[in-house]
Amino acid sequence: AQSVTQLDSQVPVFEEAPVELRCNYSSSVSVYLFWYVQYPNQGLQLLLKYLSGSTLVKGINGFEAEFNKSQTSFHLRKPSVHISDTAEYFCAVIGYSTLTFGKGTMLLVSP
Amino acid sequence: EAQVTQNPRYLITVTGKKLTVTCSQNMNHEYMSWYRQDPGLGLRQIYYSMNVEVTDKGDVPEGYKVSRKEKRNFPLILESPSPNQTSLYFCASSSDSGTGTQYFGPGTRLLVL
Hints:
- The complex is a heterodimer.
- By secondary structure, chain A is an all-beta fold.
- Chain A has strands spanning 2-6, 10-14, 19-21, 23-27, 32-38, 44-50, 56-58, 64-68, 73-78, 87-94, 99-101, 105-110.
- In chain A, strands 2, 5, 6, 10, 11 and 12 form a six-stranded mixed beta sheet that branches. Chain A has a four-stranded antiparallel beta sheet with strand order 3-9-8-7, with no helix packed on it. Chain A has a two-stranded antiparallel ribbon with strand order 1-4.
- Chain A starts with a strand and ends with a strand.
- In chain B, the strands form two sheets. In chain B, strands 2, 4, 5, 6, 9, 10 and 11 form a seven-stranded mixed beta sheet that branches. A four-stranded antiparallel beta sheet of chain B has the order 1-3-8-7, with no helix packed on it.
- In chain B, a hairpin with a 2-residue loop joins strand 5 (42-51) and strand 6 (54-57).
- Chain B is globular, with a radius of gyration of 13 Å.
């Protein structure tokens, strides 16, 4: 079985500040890791994914994430957020054939 | 344009009245799946399909049925809907179940009275 824990349900931040959204996972097999973003009233779209290789993964819109196997974490970061980054962010893991999502973190960017 | 379409986008129905939510993708993807999204619970997988005529249960399959007779279509069937199936439903497809990016449809908001 596999599971994903997103430690914060909401993260409020001011525009141009850095942000980190935390994600921890557990799995009995090797996993692939993903971050998806959901803008208001839309479906999900992929931000970035870790399959293998470099543990620092760069995605769209200036986001990056670092895979840490020893800490079973895959935290998402952005050095300077914009108002348009306001959205819900989901961490996900796939071990066998099923994709398991965390409960989501709402990023609230204010001016 | 590569896309996943779902219909209807919004649906209000009553308990026990059978309904079908259609899902279609134009990317020739083998892998398709259905999720439901509920506040505070994130997305939970209902069913998935690795290919035509191959389907399997996800985490919350009770009360749902699916079929995959054609590669492009993956309808979700609620034979006897109940109020606890009120939710936002997403269909997704991928070229590779393990590593491929999942492409999500726009969602279907269902209210069961």
